[in-house]
Amino acid sequence: xxxxxxxxxxxxxVAALSMxxxxxxxxxxxxxxxxxxxxxxxxxxxxxxxxxxxAVRGRVREENPLLKDPFFRRFLGGQNQKLPERETEATGSGxxxxxxxxxxxxxxxxxxxxxxxxxxxxxxxxxxxRLVGSDPDTDIAxxxxxxxxxxxxxxxxxxxxxxxxxxxxxxxxxxxxxTVTSGIVSALGRSxxxxxxxxxxxxxxxxxxxxxxxxxxxxxYGELIGINTAILAPEGSSIGxxxxxxxNMARKVMEQLIEYGTVRRGRIxxxxxxxxxxxxxxxxxxxxTGAVIARVQPGSPAAQGxxxxxxxxxxxxxxxxxxxxxxxxxxxxxxxxDDVQLTIDRRGTEYTATVRIEQATPETASxxxxxx
Length: 372
Fold this sequence. Notes:
Largest sheet: 6 strands, antiparallel, barrel
CATH class of the largest domain: Mainly Beta
Number of strands: 25
Number of helices: 7
Oligomer: single chain
CATH architecture of the largest domain: Beta Barrel
């Protein structure tokens, strides 16, 4: 339940057992000796009822490493040997995103291998949750609880974030109960961390620790702009570098999980790569960012839309594209059957092309290769 790679930790707490539209974010309160200081307490009082604690019980099968050796496998009953199971328990956080229907969004790794999921609201009401769907490639899962007097956290627009924006992280670190920390957006578009298939993380220095997984990252207007997912943690706790899935990405996944129970990945039939200085020179473009189409598959939607090998994609439906990873994310999470408009730089001249999204095969959808 806790994955580590180069000190990167997904933030669920785990134990194995033997068994509204933007307005003023806050207000001013009187200060000692006159004057006033800002507070975000009014904003937090509105949205914290929409943040929940999640407790998960599950069972995992123990693996016997000796079964991987053919010599020992003969003496241990072969690969068909029934392996022992152990119970697991995990804690995490979640966000109510639809109070009328009882939908809660969290991380997929929080609810992995769950046999029972229990959601506790801020006012200490407990509900048994049903798993609507889970997508490990984006680490997003959707739960459903009874819509009994719930409060939803309003969703914002993560595409409008800028480095330096103030943000607040809310969650259940170390099982302590609801906790609020604040910081800024440290970086945008973080990828290449190798923990998820689709990576476009918001990086923040708001303190995030194990148990915060699935909790909200909100702006100072109280709007949800990310789902906290991982931290860079050499010692297993926060050092000021945390990562959140942008809410615009999470929203697309959530909508498909609610409608289909799974995510139907999109593709247009291209192989892509980042723009490098040497490629830019060869392509006769002064641009420094974008996604290079290395190959267009014959008969694919991209070929039918007029794309060519060597085209540089600089925008999708008006959203600027800075890298091959970003283009892969935008296409992979687009609705199958929709038409998207690509803005292309072809040897210094801009073109637009309309391409229809088709459904990726399971092999393509789960692959981290840059094929879309």
